[in-house]
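Need residues for this backbone.
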């Protein structure tokens, strides 16, 4: 039996403003109608017998909604502790001693036959008792990836991200491969090797897992025990230390999509080697990437990156877009929310988008998915006016239940107990106008909640 451990944590700040903490790149639709997370599950469904998705507690509803058709189990981390604890906790959650195939959820792979062949070889080596890593055949001197040095399938050394000069040496040598961050091994072998090389991590994970809350294929680690686990990557904690390791080399059209340059590389290009997402009109532009949700006119750009969203715009010389992380650290308090959230924020019940945020009032569009409802709640600092735009629902205000349909209105006084439910088969869409002296999401006192957020 083959279990796929899908690592679906991470903030994805390198692809800001498309990717943000509350909606990171693995869940964003960067390449079409499906997210990278969904593409990962779909790709591995043909290879694996079962899925365990490891993600942050705050991102659980994104993973559950997008993975609903794959029969996944989920392990939720209240705080991140890097890949070594995540994989260790995943091992502890799985019964018996199967082979585990560990994959990030935000990578792109185009050559699926080569991918399947590499996984088959890795399974064979794992069955022999090896920890197996996947090395990508380099196509250029890349400074953004770590490297694995090998002799055949024997791993000789791991190397940090190199300088350009060193990367050119690695490429010419021919026995250095990009570190993909994918692994394959038997559960028992991994736990034995981790106990040998990083016992403090395994001991803390075992202690935390003894307190796990399990319900309907959902594993939740208590915060106080998760915080006790040392933070470390699987490479540092184990792979660079063990002698019991092999590497499978592969050329499968792989990229970790860690930059807009990488995203540009896999896009269709025009005759001037430009890649455009959205409605872009260009004149005399060359080797540029432009992504926008509105009409863009570009003239005379070369080696340029422009990524436009509703509330933020990134402009960069091609080759430097990853430096955006340094700029994000400089955002002042007024703009700091741009690192965390999109204008349209996802929730377990649906989404909301802020249309206007003023000193005395705030306007939102709220969309509730069929069969879902918001928490039973109240506010101390604001009153709300609701207008139904589409769908059928039910409004509860201080024990009164009011049917809600297009054209209906409802008034929610300050401190009244209220709830909005979608009772129909289509999305329920409302306009909400808030009036008061404070409009933060933390002015929500939940009394009941279907999503365990109390």
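Answer:
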């Amino acid at each position: 039996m083959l279990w796929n451990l899908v690592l679906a944590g991470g903030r994805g700040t390198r692809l800001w403003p498309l990717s943000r903490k509350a909606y990171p790149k693995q869940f964003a639709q960067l390449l079409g109608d499906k997210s990278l997370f969904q593409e990962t599950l779909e790709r591995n469904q043909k290879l694996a017998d079962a899925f365990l998705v490891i993600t942050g507690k705050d991102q659980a509803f994104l993973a559950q909604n997008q993975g609903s058709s794959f029969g996944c189990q989920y392990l939720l981390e209240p705080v991140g502790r890097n890949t070594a604890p995540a994989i260790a906790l995943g091992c502890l959650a799985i019964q018996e001693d199967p082979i585990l195939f560990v994959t990030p959820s935000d990578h792109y792979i185009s050559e699926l036959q080569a991918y399947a062949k590499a996984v088959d070889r890795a399974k064979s080596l794992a069955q022999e008792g090896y920890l197996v890593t996947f090395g990508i055949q380099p196509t250029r001197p890349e400074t953004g990836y770590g490297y694995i040095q090998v002799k055949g399938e024997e791993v000789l050394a791991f190397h940090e991200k190199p300088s350009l000069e060193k990367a050119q040496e690695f490429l010419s040598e021919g026995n250095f491969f990009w570190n993909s961050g994918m692994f394959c091994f038997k559960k028992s072998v991994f736990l034995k090797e981790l106990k040998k090389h990083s016992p403090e991590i395994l001991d803390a994970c075992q202690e935390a897992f003894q307190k796990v809350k399990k319900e309907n294929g959902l594993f939740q680690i208590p915060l106080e025990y998760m915080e006790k686990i040392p933070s470390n990557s699987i490479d540092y904690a184990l792979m660079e230390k063990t002698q019991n390791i092999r590497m499978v080399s592969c050329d499968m059209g792989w990229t970790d999509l860690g930059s807009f340059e990488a995203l540009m590389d896999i896009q269709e290009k025009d005759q001037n080697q430009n890649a455009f997402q959205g409605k872009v009109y260009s004149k005399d532009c060359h080797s540029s990437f432009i992504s926008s949700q509105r009409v863009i006119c570009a003239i005379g750009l070369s080696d340029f990156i422009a990524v436009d969203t509703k509330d933020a715009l990134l402009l960069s010389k091609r080759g430097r877009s990853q430096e955006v992380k340094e700029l994000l650290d400089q955002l002042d308090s007024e703009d700091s929310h741009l690192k965390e959230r999109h204008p349209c924020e996802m929730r377990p019940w649906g989404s909301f988008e802020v249309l206007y945020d003023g000193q005395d009032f705030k306007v939102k569009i709220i969309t509730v998915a069929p069969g879902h409802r918001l928490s039973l709640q109240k506010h101390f600092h604001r009153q709300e006016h609701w207008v139904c735009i589409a769908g059928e629902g039910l409004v509860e205000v201080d024990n009164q239940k009011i049917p809600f349909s297009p054209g209906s209105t409802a008034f929610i006084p300050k401190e009244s107990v209220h709830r909005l439910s979608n009772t129909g088969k289509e999305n329920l869409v409302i306009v909400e106008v808030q009036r008061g002296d404070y409009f933060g999401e933390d002015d929500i006192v939940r009394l009941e909640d279907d999503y365990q957020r109390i």
